[in-house]
Amino acid sequence: MTSPYNYNQYRSAYDNQAHDRNSQMYWDAVSMTSSDRNSIALSIYHSVPELHQEEAAASMHSQSNRNDKNWHEHKSVDFVLAYNPNERQKIKRQIFEKNLLSEGLLLHHDEAQNIHFVKIHVTHEVLCRYAEILKFKFPIKLDENESDFALEDEIGEVSRSIKSIFDSIYKYIRLDKRLFPSRKYELYHEFSRDKSYLFDVNDPDFFPCYVRLAVVSFILERTAFADNPGDNLNCVGIDKLLADKVYMTAYPLHDGHHMDRGTQRALLFNEWAKMKNWLKHQPLDAIKNYFGVKIALYFSWLGFYTNMLIIPSILGLLCFIYGLFTMFSNPVVDKICNANDSVVLCPKCDGCDYTLLSDTCTYSRINHILDNNVSVFFAVCMAIWAAIYLELWKRYSAKIVHRWGMSDYCRQSEHPRPAYLARIKHKKKVKNRINPVTRQTEPTLSFSKKLPSYLLSYSIILLYICISIAVVVALIIYRMATMGSKKVTAIVDHIDPVSYRYLIILPVTTGIINLIAITILNYLYDYLAVILTNLEYRRTQTEYDNSLSLKIYLFQFINYYSSLFYIAFIKGKWPGTPAKYNRVFGLRQEECSPGGCLMELFIQLAIIMIGKQALNALIEMALPLMMKKYNKFMFGYRQKDEEEAELKACNQWTKDFKLMEWDSMGLFHEYLEMILQFGFCTLFVIAFPLGPFFALVNNIFELRLDARKFLMYFRRPVPRRVSDIGIWLGVMNVLGRLSVITTAFIIAFSSGFIPRLVHHFSEDLNKLDYLEFTLAYFDTSHFEEKKGDEKYSVCRYPEFRNPPDHPNPYKRPFYYWKILAARLAFIIVFQNIVAWLQQIIDWAIPDKPTKLNSQIKRENYLVSNKIIREEKFRILQSARAKAEDIDYVNGAVYFEAKS
């Protein structure tokens, strides 16, 4: 079938560039560094030959009237633009589509419904040109003797020995080879039309779908929609057209319905996204071919992280079970429960009454589940696990990135963002520099010019972080006020004076309020972070994404973890004595129970972590479904005739139009959720040994639900290339190092581990009962606010203080300083030992396997040899042809002379 547009009239403009290796015309177009900076936007317009606007518009309009519904059967629809017919925006659309035509794209209009569509097909010539421009890598043709050094395929496979032993189990884990055949060895090289002999370019499937979509997206982002784009900075790119409502949306197509047999989408849905496949390996190569490297690498990382959680989940369960089995046999807890009326605790708040130590029996037993000697061992194991996990991920990602031909991908070779180039056009002192990777000239702005935007951005971030901290302070004051509220006291004392208030009401209500505040602030800050990042001068999309990710994560870190840091490190550390309490705004500071604050930290962690995961899962599944129904309702197509009814039923672009739009932040939130979870599992793991187990269960569902969401409810994302998971690897590395510090401080200051050790190994203190050792005496006649008729003459409180009859009453005894020294010594020893072990792990596990390094060297050798052989062959052919021409000329001269 003939193309709906006469592309031949524009084709000659590019034929002269077919083998121009410098590609200067292109670079002026993409990097916008033409010598005439006044026409910098014109350079985005790709420097195409001048076209007659009226003739092109008339030709386009006449062709668009042809509504051939079978067009897509002959020409694959790579991209779709949807718009509402609007005469006011018609000129912009016509100019934009004319410029797309001049780039070599084929367009076809579908105007049979209320929403009009422009279907885009990218030709082989355009793919060749832009594959070279964008430096895509493709598999080269290999001889039989060149494929003998393939690295053994370990991606998604267990070792052969384990496979042979557990083959009966393994069959439920491995992928069906009939549906996902074993991947053959491929050697990648950067595409070049001059070296087309390396590639099988005549293969109709040489350019995979993700390359086609990436090329079209690149062209759309850099095509102008004005006759003189140099006169207006905001006249370039599909993003601006979408913002101005010229087009409603732009998206690549799914290859069919998720239930249609024979489509890659249906195959992935049935064999990957369904929960019945939760035990199976992921078809990572198929995911990469359908969604691109960026999304495939996310699922690769999520699957690896989930598998690595199995061991800490088992250890955490064993630690928790140990606490359960010993909670009724611990001598200290037994003494608390058997204290009867012999030990009376001082009032916990201004409006509270005295309580018996035995009333804290249940709390103390539960606290023992978390605060035991095995928990310390588990915390050390988790710090070591975090280091091993990160090192193994580096090795795993190195193999899989090399497998996909992305090992050498560098963000410096990434093309500048159109928004960045447009912003620096009218800036003074814009300098041209040589890109160290591409060796091309591009404009750059000095750091001094960028500094004001950075200062403004991070100043506002600091302000919002202060707001988040203020929310936590407000919650602390709420807790203090609730503790001292006479109304609350009257209600809970009627039920149970200890358990309900300290174990249920305050921790649970505060945790729920904190979760609600966190969720609200998150949505506000996400919106603000995008605005602030847009103010900065970020050259590439990768730099933009990393800057945005860092801003949001810094805020989320404070938002989620600040209340946990308060409970772990501040609460109950400086309450004062009953003779003189330390007050904040006239309110008594909160105190920990005799067993410490680990139980409350456990409750807060459980509510935030589990509640956050449950809320996110609900939003992630409910919101796309609701938006899909909303789009179907708001943009439903009124059928004009039977033909439209058929179109409505069969057109993939109309089906995909009703799906949710995929934006650049889509994958960011998936990473953020998992990184926050990683922080919960490492920073506070001693208080929540079940954290890794709940994370494992969540991730098993998360992986399949994310896959289902991407395939069912979202339009197909534009494939992006990456070589790693971006800033998140560095964030996890920092969290792993920080977890050593937080764990050491929690063990030293928030648990009873160090006091138990000092009591056990000190001969003078070992003579004392442990409760006598940890509970100080107080004479009730010394209360700062006299209560009149006191029920008891003496009460106890959890502090290391001298008794009232001591020469220095209520002062710190010598053994307090002994315990403090032991705590500080433990922190130093713990941090150094664990840090030393982490360094050994880092040194012992290389980031790249030795075999992979050898393979890369072998591949470079094979490619170099192949190029040398082919170039020699071409030179010989050229020399032979010249010799034949000379012989022919000499022969002709000889015969002419003879005649």
Word description of this protein:
Pfam families: Anoct_dimer, Anoctamin. It is a multi-pass membrane protein. The chain crosses the membrane at residues 298-325, 374-393, 455-481, 502-525, 552-570, 674-701, 722-749, 814-837. It is found in: Cell membrane; Membrane. This protein is α+β, with helices and mostly antiparallel strands and 899 residues long. The protein folds into two domains: 8-139 and 191-251, no CATH class; 270-414 and 446-755, no CATH class. The chain has 34 helices and 16 strands. The strands form seven sheets. It has a four-stranded antiparallel β-sheet. A two-stranded antiparallel sheet has the order 4-5. A two-stranded antiparallel sheet has the order 7-8. A hairpin with a 2-residue loop joins strand 13 (583-584) and strand 14. Helix 15 (310-326) runs antiparallel to helix 28 (691-712).
Structure characteristics:
899 residues; alpha+beta; 2 domains; four-stranded antiparallel β-sheet; two-stranded antiparallel sheet; 34 helices; 16 strands; 58% helix
